[in-house]
Amino acid sequence: MNTDREPIGVIGTGDVGLVTAAGFAELGSDVYCVDIDADKIARLEAGEIPIYEPGLEELVARNRDRLHFSTDIAPALEHARLLFVAVGTPPTYSGDADLSAVESVVAAMPPSDRHALVMKSTVPVGTGASIKRRFEETGKTGFRYVSCPEFLKEGSAVNDFLHPDRVVIGDDGDWAGDAVTELYAPLEAPLVRTDIRSAEMVKLASNAFLATKISFINEIANVCEETGADVIEVARGMGLDDRIGKKFLQAGIGFGGSCFPKDVQALKQLAGNTGYHFQLLTAVIEVNELQKRRVMNKLQKHLGSLVDKEIALLGLAFKPNTDDMREASSLVLSARLNAAGAHVRAYDPVAEEEARKLIRGMAFCPTALEAVDGADAVVLVTEWPEFAELDLAEVAGRMRGTLLVDGRNFLDVEAARAAGLTYEGIGRPGLNGGGTS
Ligand code: UGA
After folding, report:
1. Does residue 151 line the site of ligand 1, with CB under 6 A?
2. Which atom of ligand 1 is nearest to the CA of 156?
3. Full strand arrangement of the beta sheet holding 8-11
4. Is 411 helix (H, G, I), strand (E, B) or coil?
5. Is the CB of 318 within 6 Å of ligand 1?
6. Contact 374/311 with Cβ under 8 angstroms?
7. Rounded to two decimals, what is the model's pTM?
8. For a pocket test of ligand 1, which of 122, 148, 154 has the largest count of ligand atoms closer than 8 A to its C-beta?
9. pLDDT tens for residues 221-261?
10. CA-CA distance, 103 to 99, in Å (whole number)?
11. Which active-site residues does the annotation give?
12. Atom of ligand 1 nearest to the CA of 408
């Protein structure tokens, strides 16, 4: 391991900040992590990882000596030139990104010719330019700025950091851009070194494109249901075309999480603020909202009124391998089910604690089998690997009804049918309804 690696600061110890910190520590840097949340810093110092992210605990433990945690920015400023910013940029009511946390960081920077902010947080195009303007207005002209958007996915963030598809660095062609380039060099990823605005746009456009791909395949799935085609076969046939690619063509009950819904909205809003109406993204958002609700039609088709029906949800997190409940489809679904008079119970292997903070009127069960006990219908919401191991005959035996709605086209259809379950997938009409068509 190279012992001459540049020390860095990381401001914000959420998913992105912590993975970035641990990743650069793994590559040999001393990393000075800063967060305003004293409780979080105390937990991190005690070796506790506040989020569920496979491999992160081990990575932090392995690099414990190189990771320093503080609520004070001073050690980071003293030891590091590059200060990575990974604070939250949640949506505001208008759909714009809330940049108040970023602004606090900018305001906390002292005048310096030796430091640079490296922006990891997802920000609107033009943020870098306005921060640089702010530096100039406040006598901090020497402070450098680099945009270095993050593309890691929750649930596989450690691997994504260590094996990125590309590294994007937007800068003014100065020492700071060179230093960030140098830091990423050991990862041997394709490098896109560009101007700051383009780097900012790469991030928003990438997330918007992936979200568009999902809404597109979800609409194809809905048309498959009307026309008798099977979306799994359709996606397989489409995905083999290199220009299309097979990733992000899994139809389901909509995308969620802390990024896609927020970033698609933010890009739409950013365009709108300039007077441009981004029509496509308006549709992507609407399709996603409707997709979350389609499960209701499937349940009503088989069960009629849902008043006093027992509905079991398998999985609550917005996707597997995370406890993140932000914008999860389960939030909309559980609220709709409650409103329709159903009794809802659920099991999630990891996200229960987070879900309890957000969902009312739902019974949380300690296992999947307990959740399905006496249920009129079971809905698979999140494709946790352990659900693939479920004994569907036992599931059927415990249920009161027979309906299984597979919201992620994840379960074995033949096994479900053999167990006597009525299988409803997404965009798979030939298999739906438990018939023999
Ligand atoms: C996403 C991007 O994939 C990352 O590149 C990006 O860095 C991150 O946002 C971010 O901006 O921070 P993430 O939100 O962790 O990552 O989750 P994804 O794996 O992209 O999944 C997002 C949602 O799309 C999930 O609800 C998932 O179930 C859904 N999805 C994904 C589908 O419905 N179908 C698919 O084929 C793929």
Report:
1. yes
2. 15
3. 67-70, 31-34, 8-11, 82-85, 116-119, 144-147, 167-170, 191-194
4. coil
5. yes
6. no
7. 0.94
8. 154
9. 999 999 999 999 999 999 999 999 999 999 999 999 989 99
10. 6
11. 259
12. 33
